[in-house]
What does this fold into?
Amino acid sequence: MNDKNQSDINSILQREYSLEIGGVIGRGWEILQGNLVGFLLFTLVISLIAVGVVIVAIVFFITIIGIPIGILILILMSPLVLSPLAAGHIIVAFKVIKRQPVEFGDFFNGFKNNYFLPIFLSALVIGLFTTICGVPGQVLSYVYRFSALASQTSEAPAGLLIASLSLSFIGAIAGAIITLFYSLTVPFIVARKMTFWPAMEASRKVIAKQWPLWILLGILLSLINVVGLLFCGLGLLFTSPLTACVIAAAYERIVGLPNSNDSFA
It folds into this structure.
C-alpha cells in the first residue's frame, strides 16, 4: 500500500463516518439508472457464462476420470471468471459516478492486467476463509451420515444431527460476515490500484468502524436479492447490479473517488 493510500485510510479510521443506509441505496439506484441497459445486459452475460461453466463441469463429472477436472473447474470458476466479471459492475459504476463515457467493453475491464491478479487473489483468499467457516459443519454432517449407515437401527444420535446443523448455520453466518467485511476490496483495487491484501485489510478496517450498520445494509441487500429470486430469478438481473452499485455508492461516500480523470481502464 503506498503512502497516500495508507494516509487516506488512516484518516478515515481516525474519524467517525456515517453510513446512511437509505442514502447509499438511493444513490446506488441512481448509479444503476445511469447505464441501466448496460448493467442488465452484462448481468445476463454473467448468468449465461456461469450456467455454461457449470454445464461444462457436469460433463466432466460423467466419467470418473473427469471428476477431478470438474471439481477444479467449480473451485476456480469464482476467482478466475465470476469475480473479474462482477468487478465490471464496480468499474462501470465508478465511471457513471465520474460522468465518464461508458462502453459495454468496460464491463470486462476486470480481466485487464492491472485489475485481474489482485481481484483473483482476493476472491481466492476470501473464498478460502468462507470455506474454512463451513468445514466443521460439513465434517460433522459426514460423521452423522456414516453413523447412520453404520448403525444397525439406521438411526444416528439426534444430538449429532443437531450439532451438525448448528455448526453449519454458524459457519454460514460467519462466512456471510467475512464476505461483508471484505465487500469494499474490489472498490479499493479499482479506485486506488491497490494489491489484494492491502485492499482486503483496508476494506475490513473501514467496515469495522461501523459494522452494525454494514450488517444491516448487508441484510437489506440480501432481502432485495431474495425478492429478485422470487420472479424465476429474473429479478436478479436488476438486484444483482443494484447491489454492486450500492457498494460503489458506499465507497464513494465513505472513501471518495480520486479527483483525477482516471478512466478505470
User: Anything to note?
Assistant: Residues 69 and 217 are 38 Å apart (CA to CA). DSSP finds ten helices and no strands in the chain. Residues 22-254 form one domain. Residues 113-150 form the longest helix (38 residues).
